[in-house]
Design brief:
The chain has 216 residues and is mainly alpha-helical. The chain is built from eight helices and four strands. β1 and β2 form a beta hairpin. The protein is elongated.
Length: 216
């Protein structure tokens, strides 16, 4: 019989897989390759047996569809309407209508695909899982956007220098094989506090809101 930790790991992997498809669809990719999505969530893109175990379960729950093959199952994947509602409902911090599918279980995502909280037996207990490839990509893109628009944001020169130094620290942490999620979120929140200290400008519109979704 599988242990609780094994069940939670499988549930988290499946939810990560849904999130990665959503992320690629948001970037304009229609029906991305399943092995590319698998690599986004830290799986071996060449291990089709492992990929098939994930895609077949999600397909059975009618959360994804795509192009099937006899050998590998789904080789391209896309979210169904139900799958998209599951992801977006969880990102918004509430359960989708009718509750979560059995393959996902009591997994709740807070923020924007960066922190996964797994409900434990004790009330309020959470377990933080390592950042995935698409988490890092979104955070690095945000850091680049902040750096590019910083001069137009309205901060004093010394504050701009401080923000750029913190962004360097954020990039360094994210470049590690296993970044520390607590350090990443601490740095991100600190940068947000500095950015929020001035009204900002049209040139930097949206930076704070996106940052809140990533690091809150």
């Amino acid at each position: 019989m599988p242990s609780d930790s094994q069940i939670r790991a499988v549930q988290t992997q499946r939810l990560n897989f849904l999130n990665a498809i959503w992320d690629r669809e948001l970037a304009g990719q229609r029906y991305p390759y399943a092995n590319d999505v698998a690599q986004d969530v830290g799986m071996d893109g060449g291990d089709w047996d492992a990929i098939k175990r994930v895609t077949e379960t999600l397909k059975a729950d009618q959360l994804i569809d795509g192009s099937p093959t006899a050998e590998h199952g789904l080789v391209t994947v896309g979210l169904t309407g139900s799958g998209r509602r599951v992801v977006e409902s969880k990102l918004a911090g509430h359960e989708p209508t009718g509750g979560s599918p059995a393959s996902i279980g009591d997994v709740r995502v807070e923020g924007n695909q960066n922190v996964i909280n797994i409900q434990q037996h004790s009330a309020g207990a959470t377990q933080h899982v390592e950042l995935t490839a698409f988490d890092k990509r979104k955070m690095l893109k945000w850091a680049d956007d902040v750096n590019r628009r910083l001069a137009s944001h309205g901060l004093a020169d010394e504050e701009q220098i401080e923000v750029r130094n913190e962004l360097d620290s954020l990039r360094n942490e994210l470049s590690k094989h296993n970044p520390d999620p607590s350090s990443v979120h601490r740095i991100g929140k600190y940068v947000l506090r500095i950015l929020a200290s001035v009204p900002g400008s049209l040139a930097s519109a949206g930076l704070i809101e996106v940052g809140k979704q990533l690091f809150s």
